Amino acid sequence: MGCNAFATYTYDLPFGPNIQRLFWLERKLLFTRPTEVVRKTVRKSEIKSKPLPVDAPERKRLPILLRRAWYGLNQAFRRRIAHTGVTPDQFTAMRTILENGQTGLTQSQLTKHMASDPNTIASLVERMEKSGLIERKAHETDRRAYRISLKPEGQRKYEKVREIAVALQTEILSALPLEKQESFLEDLANVADSCSGAAGAISKKT
Question: Which pTM does this prediction carry?
């Protein structure tokens, strides 16, 4: 017969085509250079390990996480201090005034420390003054400026709300091991500085 003995044997069996396919694959592997196999394997691994874009839905995204964290924290704090009549922004302003100047802060200084805008702070200061939390006195050298300081009522309410704020922060940070909490806050401060720097760079261009 003019047929190859192996071929005749293969196709005489019910599963002959499958054996022939396996034989073909085996020959392909035997005659494939090792470097080609390695190269193909590396290419596959490179495809699998290719990093996703920073805004890919599968990744943790900075803007969404910061918004979720801020919104959740602000809502929790607002609800827990509602009975005091003080808002989160008013507490932040009182804390900023106490921590950054024994003689009080000017409105522009308060705006800078709170990372806010002048109109927002002007409205906040006006409401706090009407509520009896702060007082404004003429600046000793700048006739256009005022020094803002806490009144006794503001000091009293600040101390009361501060206890709630400390308890809430302790509760939130308990999601992390104690030894990682400080490093987390340091990293978060670096991110906040980077965000401020980016905003400043844009404002200079415009």
Answer: 0.69
